[in-house]
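User: Sorry, folds how?
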Amino acid sequence: MRTSLAGRVTGRGATAAGSVLVLVLAAVAAARTADSTDTPRKSPVAAAPARTTPAKPDAATLLAALLPRHVKAGDKDGQGGDTDAGAAQEAYAFVVADDGKGKSFVQVNAQPDMSEALAGHFDGARTLPDGTRVLRTKENDPDQKGGAGAVGWTVDALRPDGFRVVVTAFNSPDRGRPADRARPALTMAQLEDIALDEAWLAWR
Protein backbone atom coordinates (compact mmCIF):
# COMPACT_ATOMS: atom_id res chain seq x y z
CA MET A 1 0.00 0.00 0.00
CA ARG A 2 1.28 3.47 -0.90
CA THR A 3 1.72 5.72 2.08
CA SER A 4 1.23 9.46 1.96
CA LEU A 5 4.05 11.91 2.57
CA ALA A 6 2.49 12.75 5.93
CA GLY A 7 2.29 9.08 6.87
CA ARG A 8 6.05 8.52 6.32
CA VAL A 9 7.07 10.82 9.14
CA THR A 10 8.16 8.69 12.14
CA GLY A 11 10.16 8.99 15.28
CA ARG A 12 10.55 11.89 17.69
CA GLY A 13 8.54 14.96 16.63
CA ALA A 14 6.49 12.93 14.22
CA THR A 15 3.24 14.31 15.53
CA ALA A 16 4.34 17.95 15.23
CA ALA A 17 6.03 17.43 11.87
CA GLY A 18 3.02 15.57 10.58
CA SER A 19 0.77 18.41 11.59
CA VAL A 20 2.96 20.90 9.75
CA LEU A 21 3.07 18.75 6.63
CA VAL A 22 -0.67 18.35 6.67
CA LEU A 23 -1.07 22.13 6.69
CA VAL A 24 1.52 22.57 3.90
CA LEU A 25 -0.09 19.88 1.73
CA ALA A 26 -3.50 21.41 2.28
CA ALA A 27 -2.20 24.78 1.14
CA VAL A 28 -0.61 23.25 -1.97
CA ALA A 29 -3.83 21.41 -2.79
CA ALA A 30 -5.83 24.61 -2.43
CA ALA A 31 -3.45 26.45 -4.77
CA ARG A 32 -3.70 23.69 -7.40
CA THR A 33 -7.47 23.79 -7.17
CA ALA A 34 -7.45 27.54 -7.76
CA ASP A 35 -5.18 27.10 -10.81
CA SER A 36 -7.54 24.53 -12.34
CA THR A 37 -10.61 26.75 -12.27
CA ASP A 38 -12.06 28.22 -15.45
CA THR A 39 -11.51 31.82 -14.28
CA PRO A 40 -8.40 33.15 -16.04
CA ARG A 41 -5.84 35.03 -14.05
CA LYS A 42 -5.72 38.74 -14.69
CA SER A 43 -2.29 40.01 -15.63
CA PRO A 44 -1.34 43.17 -13.80
CA VAL A 45 -1.59 46.11 -16.20
CA ALA A 46 0.01 49.42 -15.39
CA ALA A 47 -2.49 52.24 -15.29
CA ALA A 48 -2.12 54.62 -18.22
CA PRO A 49 -0.80 58.01 -17.13
CA ALA A 50 -3.32 60.84 -17.17
CA ARG A 51 -3.23 62.67 -20.46
CA THR A 52 -2.61 66.36 -20.09
CA THR A 53 -2.85 69.06 -22.77
CA PRO A 54 -0.72 72.18 -22.45
CA ALA A 55 -2.56 75.43 -21.89
CA LYS A 56 -2.75 77.99 -24.64
CA PRO A 57 -0.18 80.74 -24.08
CA ASP A 58 -1.11 84.39 -23.78
CA ALA A 59 -1.48 85.47 -27.40
CA ALA A 60 -0.11 89.00 -26.94
CA THR A 61 2.93 87.77 -25.04
CA LEU A 62 3.57 85.19 -27.74
CA LEU A 63 3.32 87.76 -30.52
CA ALA A 64 5.76 90.07 -28.72
CA ALA A 65 8.19 87.18 -28.25
CA LEU A 66 8.11 86.39 -31.98
CA LEU A 67 9.16 89.88 -33.05
CA PRO A 68 12.66 90.19 -34.54
CA ARG A 69 15.31 90.84 -31.91
CA HIS A 70 16.01 94.42 -33.00
CA VAL A 71 12.32 95.36 -32.69
CA LYS A 72 11.03 96.42 -29.29
CA ALA A 73 7.49 95.62 -28.14
CA GLY A 74 5.49 98.44 -26.62
CA ASP A 75 1.80 98.31 -25.74
CA LYS A 76 0.21 94.93 -26.30
CA ASP A 77 -3.06 93.18 -25.63
CA GLY A 78 -5.10 90.26 -26.86
CA GLN A 79 -7.39 87.40 -26.10
CA GLY A 80 -7.33 83.65 -26.55
CA GLY A 81 -5.00 82.42 -23.83
CA ASP A 82 -6.91 79.65 -22.04
CA THR A 83 -6.13 76.87 -19.57
CA ASP A 84 -8.59 74.67 -21.47
CA ALA A 85 -6.39 73.93 -24.47
CA GLY A 86 -8.85 71.38 -25.83
CA ALA A 87 -11.47 73.97 -26.75
CA ALA A 88 -11.52 75.37 -30.29
CA GLN A 89 -10.92 79.04 -29.61
CA GLU A 90 -9.61 81.84 -31.77
CA ALA A 91 -6.70 83.98 -30.72
CA TYR A 92 -6.31 87.70 -31.36
CA ALA A 93 -3.45 89.92 -30.27
CA PHE A 94 -1.67 93.13 -31.12
CA VAL A 95 1.61 94.72 -30.19
CA VAL A 96 3.01 98.16 -30.98
CA ALA A 97 6.43 97.45 -32.46
CA ASP A 98 9.28 99.96 -32.63
CA ASP A 99 12.57 99.45 -34.45
CA GLY A 100 13.79 102.94 -33.62
CA LYS A 101 12.32 104.44 -36.80
CA GLY A 102 8.76 104.93 -35.62
CA LYS A 103 5.91 102.87 -34.21
CA SER A 104 4.20 100.08 -36.11
CA PHE A 105 0.96 98.37 -35.08
CA VAL A 106 1.16 94.57 -35.57
CA GLN A 107 -1.85 92.28 -35.15
CA VAL A 108 -2.45 88.53 -35.44
CA ASN A 109 -5.45 86.22 -35.65
CA ALA A 110 -5.24 82.44 -35.20
CA GLN A 111 -8.38 80.57 -36.28
CA PRO A 112 -9.20 76.85 -36.61
CA ASP A 113 -11.47 75.28 -39.25
CA MET A 114 -11.30 78.09 -41.81
CA SER A 115 -11.02 76.16 -45.09
CA GLU A 116 -14.68 76.49 -46.06
CA ALA A 117 -15.01 80.11 -44.97
CA LEU A 118 -11.96 81.09 -47.03
CA ALA A 119 -12.82 79.18 -50.20
CA GLY A 120 -11.29 81.14 -53.08
CA HIS A 121 -9.42 83.56 -50.81
CA PHE A 122 -6.12 81.76 -51.35
CA ASP A 123 -6.32 81.51 -55.13
CA GLY A 124 -2.85 82.33 -56.42
CA ALA A 125 -1.21 81.75 -53.04
CA ARG A 126 2.17 80.06 -52.69
CA THR A 127 1.98 76.45 -51.50
CA LEU A 128 4.66 75.14 -49.15
CA PRO A 129 5.90 71.51 -49.19
CA ASP A 130 3.64 70.62 -46.24
CA GLY A 131 0.56 71.91 -48.10
CA THR A 132 0.29 75.22 -46.22
CA ARG A 133 -0.83 78.05 -48.50
CA VAL A 134 0.70 81.48 -47.95
CA LEU A 135 -0.72 84.72 -49.33
CA ARG A 136 1.10 88.06 -49.15
CA THR A 137 -0.69 91.37 -49.70
CA LYS A 138 0.10 95.09 -49.43
CA GLU A 139 -2.78 97.52 -49.06
CA ASN A 140 -3.43 101.20 -48.55
CA ASP A 141 -5.71 101.88 -45.57
CA PRO A 142 -6.21 98.10 -45.10
CA ASP A 143 -8.76 98.36 -42.28
CA GLN A 144 -10.74 101.16 -43.97
CA LYS A 145 -10.42 103.46 -40.96
CA GLY A 146 -8.97 106.40 -42.82
CA GLY A 147 -5.51 106.91 -41.32
CA ALA A 148 -3.64 109.34 -43.55
CA GLY A 149 -0.90 107.56 -45.46
CA ALA A 150 -1.52 104.26 -43.64
CA VAL A 151 -0.47 101.03 -45.33
CA GLY A 152 -0.71 97.46 -44.15
CA TRP A 153 1.38 94.46 -45.07
CA THR A 154 -0.26 91.09 -44.48
CA VAL A 155 0.81 87.46 -44.52
CA ASP A 156 -2.07 84.98 -44.45
CA ALA A 157 -1.25 81.29 -43.88
CA LEU A 158 -3.75 78.44 -44.17
CA ARG A 159 -2.64 74.92 -43.18
CA PRO A 160 -4.11 71.81 -44.84
CA ASP A 161 -6.39 71.12 -41.85
CA GLY A 162 -7.97 74.59 -42.11
CA PHE A 163 -5.97 76.26 -39.34
CA ARG A 164 -5.26 79.87 -40.27
CA VAL A 165 -2.87 82.50 -38.94
CA VAL A 166 -2.99 85.99 -40.44
CA VAL A 167 -0.51 88.70 -39.41
CA THR A 168 -0.69 92.35 -40.45
CA ALA A 169 1.78 95.16 -39.76
CA PHE A 170 0.86 98.82 -40.23
CA ASN A 171 3.10 101.86 -40.68
CA SER A 172 1.08 103.63 -37.98
CA PRO A 173 0.94 103.22 -34.18
CA ASP A 174 -2.69 102.05 -34.29
CA ARG A 175 -5.48 101.27 -36.72
CA GLY A 176 -7.09 104.40 -38.13
CA ARG A 177 -4.12 106.56 -37.15
CA PRO A 178 -1.94 108.57 -39.58
CA ALA A 179 1.28 106.96 -40.74
CA ASP A 180 4.20 107.27 -38.34
CA ARG A 181 6.76 105.93 -40.81
CA ALA A 182 7.13 105.12 -44.51
CA ARG A 183 6.56 101.37 -44.17
CA PRO A 184 5.78 98.83 -41.42
CA ALA A 185 8.56 97.85 -39.00
CA LEU A 186 8.46 94.21 -40.14
CA THR A 187 9.27 92.89 -43.58
CA MET A 188 7.08 90.40 -45.40
CA ALA A 189 9.58 87.64 -44.64
CA GLN A 190 9.47 88.46 -40.92
CA LEU A 191 5.67 88.50 -40.94
CA GLU A 192 5.69 85.11 -42.65
CA ASP A 193 8.02 83.71 -39.99
CA ILE A 194 5.51 84.79 -37.33
CA ALA A 195 2.52 83.38 -39.20
CA LEU A 196 4.19 80.00 -39.70
CA ASP A 197 5.55 79.64 -36.17
CA GLU A 198 4.33 76.36 -34.65
CA ALA A 199 3.54 78.04 -31.33
CA TRP A 200 0.21 79.15 -32.83
CA LEU A 201 -0.82 75.52 -33.24
CA ALA A 202 -2.02 75.58 -29.61
CA TRP A 203 -5.23 77.05 -31.08
CA ARG A 204 -5.56 74.40 -33.78
